[in-house]
Design goal:
By secondary structure, this protein is α+β, with helices and mostly antiparallel strands. The chain has helices spanning 16-22, 63-71, 84-92, 100-104, 143-148, and strands at 5-7, 25-30, 35-40, 43-48, 51-59, 73-78, 108-111, 114-117, 122-133, 155-167.
């Protein structure tokens, strides 16, 4: 296991458009008995309700969503580029059907009981403040539904306080 130290936002050097959209992140949730992770490339960082916040979207069908909804905590882990194939694997294999964390040969660490991917360089520990189901009737741009939701597997938007940031 790696050693992480807490950092503050003023020490964070990252471009969220690149880190989330291009490099991807791992959303991990659960507890010390069972955890699951998934790859994500949609989300945002900013300020909400007086807190540093992460905005993530999880489809209804994703196994990780069950863990987030049960625990109301999750982590966002940002591995280096050399983990791209691992992240592809974690984004395509379901934890319902197999132990994909073991299959990916990554390790789970815990910070105050919240699981994270130990191979990451930067980790956000997040506490859910809001969970809103995205509904097709709320799209102003009607093309979103036909372009992104042909299977009708809509997302839930989670707005979460970033309680801790950890860096290697």
């Amino acid at each position: 296991m790696h050693t992480f130290q807490r950092i503050t936002t003023d020490l964070m050097e990252m471009n969220p458009f690149e880190k989330i959209g291009k490099d991807w992140m791992l959303v991990t949730a659960g507890n010390e008995e069972k955890a699951n992770t998934m790859t994500a490339s949609w989300g945002a960082l900013g300020q909400m309700w007086g807190h540093d916040a992460a905005f993530i979207v999880i489809r209804q069908s994703r196994f990780t969503k069950e863990f987030i909804d049960r625990e109301n905590m999750f982590s966002l882990s940002f591995p280096k580029e050399n983990y791209r194939n691992v992240m592809k694997f974690l984004g395509t294999v379901s934890g319902r059907n197999e132990n994909k964390i073991a299959g990916a040969r990554v390790n789970i660490g815990y910070y105050n009981g919240v699981p994270y991917i130990d191979e990451a360089e930067l980790i956000f520990i997040c506490r859910v403040m809001s969970a809103t189901k995205i509904k097709p009737e709320e799209f102003i741009d009607k093309g979103i539904d036909t372009s992104w939701y042909k299977d009708k597997d809509y997302h839930t938007l989670y707005i979460a306080e970033i309680t801790d940031m950890l860096a290697r």
